[in-house]
Design goal:
Length: 485
């Protein structure tokens, strides 16, 4: 059987004009391709390039947008681009406005329906479908910034919105129901950004269809759905990630590393608050928006609650086994619950308090405090805009002369190591989350917030919500690590 490199040589020689044909002199395109194939190992061929193992210590340990510019390998890159442009002109594949990083995709898809990619180098982009174009818009924008992804389809029950977003962002395929999108064999992964009460149903359907899943919070609204998602993901080797992008906040990453290294000593208490006036969310949206509908309202603890609890649980590095919560008696103007406070006890005896409010009249706030035997960490409640600096506070018992918490100015929701143009509404968090999701697929490993890890946060919140709905009794939390089906 002819080597894939030989196939590419034939394609080059067939399609390129004479003044672009590779010469045999040193430094030619052909020799660059030969050298690349020797240096990077054999070319991997298969229907799903992300199913091939990636060597450890490969350049995929670095996010794609931090890699060196492809112009470093200009002869190879130019050849790929010339071939792609020839296909586009000859066969009308795609359009000439296609991003340059999709070049290999055009070649690979044309090449006998196979996917071709160098191990340890760039591969064919992972094909995604975005379901739900309200919350899903930021995911669409994030993945379109990444060279390892191609958004092939968008899906929304609103056909006007779907057509407008597809046109605006250059997506060629639209669907109005998720079943048709899941039947699209071209799609490798699905983003579930539908209303909260549909997350579990849609994630289960996507995993059952063999798709990887990045789901908005919450994972699901029932323990049974959380368990089913975990079972499907683990049994079929599919990547599931719950999208709590706050774990990628630059203002928390250094402190998380310090806490996990034991700098604060054994952790005994933590606080998390998600305070977001519902008017900020729905005033610019239709009057019948699902978040304020009596039949399917966004709950407190399973709406903004996962941002508070999952992030706090990650910072504290604990698991919870008992929950107790209360709703405030006052209702919102839409006759929905707007504020809930919960206490959760960990398996090591630590306690945390979570407050979620859509009714507090104040600027948006996502607050955390973590307290250990040797030190404390607190976020400012006056946090500023995503791309502005913010202040964290730190204290340690070894600082014997300190009489006040020590303020530390840090980036808010952006990573200063990334280009400033790689930002969305929440700074760089969605982009880093998308990159980590793609990396998990490519490396055939679990996502950062994989199904079982997501359940360790969502199941306690389901139990806390049950406690509040029943008037505040203590509820035992099942341990997702005990699920073995």
């Amino acid at each position: 059987m002819r080597n894939p490199i030989q196939h590419l040589r034939i394609i080059v020689e067939e399609l390129l004009p004479d003044d672009h044909k590779p010469a045999h002199a040193p430094g030619s395109t052909r020799q660059c391709l030969d050298a690349r194939s020797r240096n990077q190992g054999e070319v991997a061929i298969g229907r799903h390039p992300h199913q091939h193992a990636i060597p450890e210590h490969s350049d995929h340990d670095v996010p794609a947008f931090e890699k060196t510019d492809p112009s470093e390998h200009a002869p190879v890159w130019r050849t790929w681009q010339i071939i792609a442009d020839s296909f586009i002109q000859r066969d009308g594949i795609g359009h000439r406005d296609a991003p340059r990083y999709n070049t290999r995709m055009w070649i690979c898809r044309y090449y006998n329906g196979k996917d071709v990619g160098y191990r340890g180098e760039a591969r064919m982009p992972i094909a995604l479908g975005i379901v739900g174009l309200g919350q899903g818009l930021s995911h669409l924008q994030a993945f379109q910034m990444l060279p390892d992804a191609q958004v092939l389809a968008v899906c929304d029950s609103d056909p006007v919105l779907c057509a407008r977003m597809a046109s605006q962002y250059g997506v060629t395929t639209t669907y109005h129901d998720i079943e048709r999108l899941l039947a699209d064999r071209r799609i490798d992964a699905v983003v579930v950004a539908t209303p909260d009460h549909l997350h579990g149903l849609h994630a289960i359907a996507a995993l059952s269809a063999g798709k990887h899943v990045l789901s908005e919070i919450p994972m699901a609204l029932t323990i049974a759905e959380c368990r089913q998602i975990t079972r499907l993901s683990e049994r079929h080797g599919l990547v599931y990630q719950m999208g709590n992008q706050v774990r990628y906040a630059a203002c928390l990453s250094d402190m998380a590393a310090l806490i996990h290294a034991g700098e604060l000593g054994p952790i005994f208490y933590g606080e998390g608050e998600y305070l977001h006036d519902m008017h900020d969310i729905v005033d610019e949206r239709p009057a019948n928006h699902w978040r304020i509908q009596a039949e399917t309202p966004q709950t407190t603890l399973l709406g903004g609650g996962p941002h508070a609890l999952d992030t706090l649980r990650w910072l504290m590095n604990v698991r919870f086994h008992k929950a107790q919560a209360f709703h405030v008696a006052q209702q919102s103007e839409w006759q929905t619950t707007h504020t809930t406070a919960a206490l959760l006890q960990s398996d090591h005896g630590a306690v945390c308090k979570i407050t979620v409010s859509y009714g507090m009249q104040r600027p948006y706030c996502l607050y955390f405090g973590v307290y250990g035997r040797d030190g404390s960490f607190e976020r400012s409640r006056d946090q500023g805009a995503p791309m502005q600096p913010t202040t964290n506070y730190y204290y340690h018992r070894r600082l014997s002369s300190a009489r006040r918490l020590i303020p530390i100015e840090v980036p808010n929701w952006y990573n200063p190591r990334l280009p400033r143009n790689l930002t969305l509404g929440h700074g760089t968090m969605e982009i880093e989350q998308a990159q980590r999701f793609l990396m998990a697929i490519q490396r055939q490993q679990r996502a950062d917030i994989h199904a079982r890890e997501a359940a360790r946060s969502i199941v306690p919140l389901i139990c806390a919500l049950q406690s509040a709905d029943q008037g505040g009794g203590i509820v035992d939390i099942p341990d997702p690590d005990d699920w073995h089906d």
